[in-house]
Design brief:
The complex is a heterodimer of chains A (181) and B (444). Chain A has 181 residues and is mainly alpha-helical. Helices cover 72% and strands 0% of the residues of chain A. Chain A contains 9 helices and no strands. The longest helix of chain A is centred in the C-terminal third of the chain and has 26 residues. Chain B is built from 13 helices and 11 strands. Chain B is elongated. With 444 residues, chain B is α+β, with helices and mostly antiparallel strands. In chain B, 36% of the residues lie in helices and 33% in strands. In chain B, 20% of the residues are buried. In chain B, helix 9 runs antiparallel to helix 11. The chains are: A mainly alpha (181), B alpha+beta (444). At the A-B interface, helix 2, helix 3, helix 6, helix 7 and helix 9 of A face helix 1 and helix 2 of B.
């Protein structure tokens, strides 16, 4: 449920009041930057996507019907902007040579030693296609059917991309574990 | 189904991840927003200017040909009005019996002793707003304000500009806060409920006309703001203009007039006609809208005839003379629109009747066996109102952002009734097919 203050900010931002827009930006930019960093390869790309996202948010703010979480609405919009950015770069299926590699169990303690920055670096290092599918499935909670519709791919492709993403991430985590030891 | 450990790890670690944002990012966003505000402002100015132009053209259309100002025949009524002006107290007394009655009933409770004759003048002086007390209608005149709130009421009544829905609700709340501390006048509590029931929230009547002591008013205001917000989001304004082909269909009422028909058919040809529309659309559902407004149409026909000049027995000159015949139409359309949904691009099919407000013809026509043409206006052969016509159109709207859309609208209009009067030997009907382009703005 929206607080009265945020509702007034949104109404002001719909009328393009710069103070209300700035207040919304200050409140939510850090969270949305975290989303952008997961979908982009580097800081610069993430900043560009965040900028485009906020411009789009302010343009489409009149479509927000005050039902449901406002942050969730903004996150969905940001994810769409990130996806469209990569679709313009012709997202294609990528082969990484990991298809034959079996999934080996990882020591659970290895996961505990990974901080936010390390996790972010691991995701950023994924190939574009894997990263998008992994983010949408594992973190945003989309289904493979929804991912297929969003990205314009087959559902089977979404499943295989996710599998490959997991394998790559697991490989990277194991590598770090070996280095740590 | 349990979550994969890798998924769980990243979801827990990065699901709520936040990162710092450089300051320069906001500067770019703010610059973009400023550009859009300027664009929207320019668009509003353009729409306003275009609306003024349309209203001006409409006024010009109505008053073209001149109307005699009715001055000479009204000396006596003017004298009577002058006498009314000289004795405003008497006039007010005779026209506002309720003011006197009210003064009489409140006389016992008021600290001031007011005579019935001078009641309205006393009210004027006490509130320092002669314009308000003399212009309010009898039934809606508010109760005599108390000392505590009269200044606030008067300043609100005079100075409050038209407000937006959010501003109106804010103003209402501010007003309620200031007034709620004053004790209600007992004789006004019955009128209060009736006044609230009569209020039309959409018209946003000035606050002093509403009963200030109604306990349920905050609820009404909250509902009003919801209605206003909802309705405002459903209203759109379209401004369109374009060209059309008008097909003239001439027919005789009886065969004796065949020569008249021939004379006109060989001398009149279709020319480029014009269309313009200012239209408001009210969205009933996601797909269905009601559209109405003002249509201006100018049916143009090229008139040609041979002018034969005799310069003596041996010299005859024949000149082909061309001019334009015009039929100017002013109509109110009542269209039902059915929209096919889309993201940026939407299609809508509109259809419905048009009510003709005025028709005016100008130009010339040929009579059979006559060399010189006759003016259409002189013979008074065209109706000044052609009744109901029918319009169908297909609107393609492309979303430009900021609540604005670019419109392209092929349109078809049919006028079943003859443009000519019953006395004239020929029937003249038209249908028009045209293309308009324009802009749509969503009113918030």
């Amino acid at each position: 449920m929206l607080s009265m203050t945020e509702k007034e900010l949104i109404e002001g931002a719909i009328k393009r009041d710069p103070r209300c827009q700035r207040a919304l930006f200050d409140r939510h930019s850090a969270t949305l930057m975290g989303v952008c960093l997961r979908y982009c390869r580097n800081q610069q790309e993430a900043e560009d996507v965040l900028q485009d996202s906020f411009i789009r948010i302010f343009d489409k703010l009149d479509l927000y019907d005050f039902k449901g979480s406002f942050e969730g609405w903004m996150r969905r919009l940001t994810v769409n902007v990130a996806l469209k950015t990569y679709q313009r770069k012709h997202f294609t299926h990528e082969k990484s040579g990991l298809e034959a590699l079996p999934e080996t169990p990882t020591d659970p303690s290895a996961y505990a030693r990974l901080g936010e920055e390390e996790l972010l670096n691991l995701v950023a290092a994924l190939p574009d296609g894997y990263r998008l599918v992994f983010n949408l499935y594992a973190i945003e909670g989309f289904s493979h059917k929804e991912i297929a519709q969003e990205l314009g791919i087959q559902e089977a492709s979404s499943r295989s991309q996710l599998l490959k993403a997991r394998k790559l991430l697991q490989q990277q985590i194991q590598r770090r574990q070996r280095i740590a030891i | 189904m349990s979550q994969h450990p890798i998924d769980k790890l990243f979801q827990e670690g990065l699901g709520k991840h936040q990162a710092s944002v450089p300051d320069s990012l906001w500067a770019n966003i703010a610059a973009d927003q400023e550009k859009k505000v300027k664009k929207a402002w320019n668009f509003k100015v353009a729409m306003f200017s275009a609306s003024l132009l349309l209203i001006f053209l409409t006024g010009l259309f109505f008053f073209q040909g001149g109307q005699q100002p009715a001055v000479a025949n009204h000396n006596t009524p003017l004298a009577e009005e002058t006498s009314k002006v000289e004795h405003p107290a008497n006039t007010l007394n005779s026209e506002t019996p309720t003011a006197s009655e009210r003064a009489t009933t409140t006389k016992s409770t008021s600290e001031t002793n007011l005579s019935p004759v001078s009641t309205s003048l006393e009210v004027k002086n006490s509130v320092n707003t002669p314009a308000i007390s003399s212009s309010l209608p009898n039934e809606e005149t508010p109760p005599i304000p108390t000392e505590e709130n009269k200044t606030f009421l008067n300043s609100q009544a005079i100075a409050t500009p038209p407000a937006t829905s959010a501003e109106q609700v804010a103003n209402d709340r501010l007003y309620l806060t200031s007034v709620s501390t004053t004790p209600p006048l007992p004789e006004q509590s019955v009128r209060s409920a009736a006044n609230v029931a009569l209020v039309d929230p959409i018209m946003t009547l000035p606050l002093p006309l509403l009963a200030p002591y109604e306990r349920d008013l905050p609820e009404v205001m909250a509902q009003t703001s919801k209605i206003i917000t909802k309705r405002k989001k459903a209203l759109e304004v379209d401004l369109l203009g374009g060209f059309a082909y008008a097909h003239q269909i001439l027919s005789t009422r009886n065969e004796d007039n065949r020569s008249s028909l021939d004379a006109r058919e060989i001398s009149e040809f279709p020319s480029l006609s014009y269309l313009a529309s200012l239209r408001f659309s009210y969205r009933l559902t996601n797909r269905i809208s009601l559209r109405s407004g003002l249509n201006y149409g100018q049916i143009r026909n090229q008139f040609e005839y041979d002018q034969i000049n005799n310069f003596g027995t041996d010299s005859v000159q024949t000149l082909l003379i061309r001019s334009s015949n015009r039929l100017r139409l002013l109509e109110v359309p009542f269209l039902l629109g059915f929209e096919l949904p889309g993201k940026r691009f939407r299609l809508a099919i509109n259809a419905g009747p048009m009510l003709n407000l005025s028709t005016k013809a100008s130009g010339r026509y040929l009579l059979p066996n006559q060399q010189q043409p006759i003016r259409l206006e002189d013979d008074n052969i065209y109706r000044t109102n052609i009744g109901i016509g029918w319009q169908g159109s297909l609107t393609a709207a492309y979303d430009l952002g900021g609540g604005n859309s670019f419109l392209i609208e092929p349109t078809f209009k049919s006028y079943p009734r003859s443009f000519t009067t019953a006395d004239y030997p020929l029937n003249e009907r038209y249908w028009m097919a045209g293309l308009q382009i324009g802009l749509r703005h969503k009113i918030h």
